[in-house]
Design brief:
The complex is a heterodimer.
Chain A: E1 22-27, H1 34-47, E2 52-56, H2 64-73, H3 78-102, E3 106-110, H4 113-122, H5 127-133, E4 142-147, H6 150-159, H7 178-199, E5 203-206, H8 211-234
Parallel strand pairs in A: 1-3, 1-4, 2-3, 4-5
Chain B: E1 17-22, H1 29-42, E2 47-51, H2 56-68, H3 73-97, E3 101-105, H4 108-118, H5 122-128, E4 137-142, H6 145-154, H7 175-197, E5 200-203, H8 208-222, H9 236-239
Parallel strand pairs in B: 1-3, 1-4, 2-3, 4-5
The chains are: A alpha/beta, B alpha/beta.
C-alpha cells in the first residue's frame, strides 16, 4: 500500500503512517459468489505465509445491530440507509482495516464503498453527495469485480437461498412481485457497477464460469500485487545514515 | 430515477416554517425555544418540536459508542448525520409539508461546529449535510464561555457530561477545564458559521424575558406572510361545523 491515498480528503485528523499491507476489495452483486471466493483466497494466501484479515459489509461491532434493527423496521429513508452503511464502514476502516494494513496484513474486503455508491444512486441519491460522504475511504490496491448477468444471477439465487426483501430492492417497489423486483433492482445495480468498473479500473472477472476458473482468475490478478508487497517487506532495510563516530583518539602520553 | 437535488443552499418550497436555535451548552437556547413554543401555541399555531440526537434509530448506538469510547471523529460525525437524516425524514419534513411551524433545538450547524473542532474536514461535514433543508429562521445564542460554565455548574444540570466537555479529545484531565477549552473552540467555529450562513445573533447574556421579547418580535415579522393551516385540535369554532347540515 505504501503511501496512503484517499478518495477525498481522507481522515484529516489521523496520520496512518506507512501502510505495509495490501487492501484488496472484492465487489459484485448479491449471489455473485464473493464470500466463497474470499474464503478460498484467504486459504491460498495463508498457505503461502501471508497474514490475512477479512472484513465484510455491516460487520462492524458498532453498527451491525443498528443496521439489523433498521432493516427489520423497513422504515429507512435513503439518507439514513446510506449513512448507516457509511458509519459501519468508517468504524471498520479505523478500527480494523487501517490497523491491519499498518501491521502488514493483506486485507480482503467483502464489498467496498462501490456497493454503497451503487445502492444509493439506484435509490435516486445524488452521486456527488454519496461520493463526498465516502471521501474518507482508502483507495484499495486492487478491486476485483465478479461480474454476472441478471438472468444467471436470478437462477443462482433461487437455487441457493432464495430471494429476500432487501436483495430484491422491495423498498423501491420496482416490480409487482419479488422476482420482477429482484431482476429490475439487480439490473440497475449491475449497470452502476459496470460504469464504475471503467471509472475506477476494476479487474473484471466473469462470475458465470465454474468456481475453479473464477478462483484461478482472481489469483492471477492478485499475484502481481503480492510481489510488490514481498519486495517491500523483504527489502534490506537501508543502513541508518548515522555516521559512526571514530573512536576518540587516545591521548598520547 | 432522477437524482435528488442538494438543497441546503436554497430555501425550501413547503408551506410550513422551520425555526431553529443554535448555541453552546449553557447558552440558554433551549429555554428560549420553549418560551417561543408556548407563545406560538397560545396564538393558535400548530407547532412541532424536535431536538438533536433523539431519533430512535441511532440513539442506542450512540449511547453504546459513547460508553465504550470507541467513537472516532468520523463515526461520531456520521452517526449524528444519520440521526439527523432520520429526523428530517420522519419528523421535520411531514409537519413542514402539512404547513406547521417546526421548532428545532440545534440543527446541522451544531455538527459543523463540533465536528470541525474534533478534526474532520469543514468542507466534508458541510457537504455531508447537503441533503438538509435551509431553515427559515436560525437564531444563534451568543454567550461568553464563563457565563456558560456558571450556568451549567450552578444551574439546573449541575454536571457536565463527558462528550459535552470534549473529554474524548484528551484536552485536560479536569472536566471543567476540558469543557472550557473544547467549548471555546466551538465558539470560535460558530463565529465563522454565523457569518457564512447569516444566523441571527442573540445576546444570550441579557435577561431571559428581554431575549424572549426580541425573539418574538423577530418571529412575528417573519410570520407576517405565513398562512397557518387549520389543525384538528383545539379549534372548537370549526369543530361544530362538521356536524352542520348543508
Amino acid at each position: 500500500m505504501g503511501s496512503v491515498r484517499y478518495f477525498g480528503e481522507g481522515l484529516t485528523y489521523l496520520n496512518p503512517g506507512r501502510l505495509r499491507g495490501k487492501l484488496i476489495a472484492i465487489e459484485g452483486t448479491d449471489g455473485s459468489g464473493r464470500s466463497t471466493h474470499i474464503e478460498m483466497l484467504q486459504e491460498w494466501l495463508e498457505v503461502q505465509g501471508y497474514g490475512v484479515v477479512t472484513t465484510g459489509w455491516t460487520r462492524s461491532s458498532l453498527m451491525s445491530k443498528a443496521i439489523e434493527v433498521a432493516k427489520k423496521g423497513n422504515i429507512l429513508d435513503r439518507w439514513s440507509f446510506s449513512l448507516l452503511y457509511a458509519t459501519d464502514f468508517a468504524d471498520r476502516l479505523e478500527h480494523q482495516i487501517i490497523p491491519a494494513l499498518r501491521a502488514g496484513f493483506i486485507v480482503l474486503a467483502d464489498r467496498y464503498i462501490y456497493t454503497a455508491l451503487a445502492r444509493d444512486i439506484v435509490r435516486g441519491g445524488n452521486p456527488e453527495w454519496i461520493r463526498n460522504v465516502f471521501g474518507f475511504a482508502l483507495i484499495p490496491d486492487l478491486v476485483c469485480y465478479l461480474r454476472i448477468d441478471v438472468d444467471t444471477l436470478a437462477m443462482r439465487v433461487i437455487e441457493s437461498k432464495g430471494m429476500n426483501f432487501w436483495e430484491s430492492g422491495m423498498d423501491l417497489r420496482l416490480g409487482s412481485d419479488l422476482f420482477d423486483s429482484f431482476k429490475k433492482y439487480q439490473m440497475q445495480l449491475i449497470e452502476q457497477y459496470d460504469k464504475m468498473a471503467e471509472e475506477f479500473r476494476f479487474e473484471v472477472v466473469d462470475a458465470r464460469k465454474p468456481p475453479e476458473e473464477i478462483q484461478e482468475a482472481l489469483r492471477s490478478k492478485i499475484e502481481p500485487i503480492l510481489k510488490t508487497a514481498k519486495k517491500a517487506a523483504s527489502a534490506p532495510t537501508q543502513p541508518e545514515a548515522v555516521p559512526i563516530e571514530p573512536e576518540p583518539e587516545q591521548l598520547s602520553p | 430515477m432522477t437524482p435528488s437535488p442538494l438543497t441546503f443552499d436554497q430555501s425550501h418550497p413547503y408551506p410550513g416554517k422551520l425555526i431553529i436555535v443554535e448555541g453552546i451548552d449553557g447558552s440558554g437556547k433551549s429555554t428560549q425555544l420553549l418560551l417561543l413554543q408556548k407563545w406560538l401555541e397560545s396564538k393558535g399555531y400548530n407547532v412541532f418540536f424536535t431536538e438533536w440526537n433523539s431519533s430512535e434509530l441511532v440513539r442506542e448506538t450512540t449511547k453504546k459508542g459513547k460508553k465504550s469510547k470507541t467513537l472516532t471523529p468520523t463515526t461520531f460525525s456520521l452517526l449524528h448525520a444519520t440521526d439527523f437524516a432520520s429526523r428530517l425524514y420522519h419528523q421535520i419534513l411531514p409537519p413542514l409539508k402539512a404547513g406547521m411551524i417546526v421548532l428545532a433545538d440545534r440543527y446541522a450547524y451544531t455538527a459543523f461546529a463540533r465536528d470541525a473542532v474534533r478534526g474532520v474536514s469543514r468542507t466534508w461535514v458541510r457537504q455531508l449535510y447537503n441533503f438538509a433543508i435551509r431553515p427559515d429562521m436560525a437564531f444563534y445564542f451568543n454567550v461568553p464561555i464563563d457565563v456558560a460554565i456558571d450556568r451549567l455548574l450552578g444551574g439546573a444540570r449541575a454536571q457536565i457530561k463527558f462528550y459535552e466537555a470534549g473529554m474524548d479529545m484528551g484536552l485536560s484531565q479536569d472536566i471543567t477545564e476540558s469543557f472550557r477549552i473544547f467549548q471555546s473552540r466551538i465558539l470560535a467555529e460558530y463565529d465563522k458559521i454565523v457569518e457564512e450562513y447569516r444566523l441571527i445573533v442573540m445576546d444570550a447574556t441579557k435577561d431571559i424575558e428581554t431575549q424572549q421579547t426580541e425573539m418574538r418580535a423577530l418571529v412575528s415579522t417573519a410570520l407576517e406572510q405565513y398562512k397557518p393551516k387549520r389543525g384538528t385540535h383545539g379549534k372548537r369554532t370549526l369543530f361544530w361545523r362538521r356536524f352542520d347540515l348543508p
